[in-house]
Design brief:
143 residues, alpha+beta, Lipocalin, 9 strands
C-alpha cells in the first residue's frame, strides 16, 4: 500500500470515528425541567398564561413557574409536554448535530433550547399569531 492510500485510509477512519463520537454524545434530555423567566417581552397571553393588553417585559422576579417534561427520546428526537399553572401543550423536538441546540414546536409556538449543562437549559419561546406575540427565555433546571 502506498503512502497516499495509507493516509486516505487513516483520514477516513478519523472521519468515521468522529461521526460515531458525535452520535454517542447525544444528550439524554428525558425528565422534568422547571424554571422561570430570565427576560423578554410579550403581548397577549397564549394558552399557558394570563393575557397582557399591551406589550409587557418579562423578568425573573415574576416567579411564574413553567415546566418542560420530556417523556420519550429516541436518538435526536423527543416528545413531551410544556406547561404552566394554567395548562399544558404537547411538544416535540430535535437535538441538532452540535449536541447543544434543541429545536421544539408545540401547538402554537417555536422554541429553542441551549444545553448549558447536564441539568440546565436556556429555553426560549417565540410566538406570533393574530392575538399573541412573544419572545422570551427561561432558565430550566432538571428536577
Amino acid at each position: 500500500m502506498g503512502i497516499g492510500r495509507a493516509i486516505a485510509v487513516i483520514g477516513a477512519a478519523l472521519v468515521l470515528g468522529g461521526i460515531a463520537s458525535a452520535e454517542d454524545a447525544i444528550p439524554n434530555l428525558v425528565g422534568t425541567w422547571s424554571g422561570t423567566f430570565t427576560g423578554g417581552g410579550r403581548l397577549g397571553g397564549g394558552d399557558l398564561a394570563p393575557a397582557d393588553a399591551k406589550p409587557t417585559f418579562v423578568h425573573e422576579d415574576m416567579k411564574r413557574q413553567y415546566t418542560l417534561k420530556i417523556d420519550e427520546q429516541h436518538g435526536r428526537g423527543m416528545i413531551g409536554t410544556w406547561s404552566s399553572v394554567k395548562g399544558s401543550e404537547r411538544i416535540q423536538g430535535v437535538v441538532r448535530l452540535d449536541n447543544q441546540t434543541v429545536l421544539f414546536v408545540d401547538t402554537d409556538s417555536y422554541e429553542t433550547a441551549k444545553i448549558l449543562s447536564a441539568n440546565e437549559l436556556e429555553f426560549c419561546n417565540q410566538t406570533t399569531n393574530g392575538k399573541d406575540m412573544f419572545a422570551f427565555c427561561f432558565l430550566l433546571k432538571r428536577q
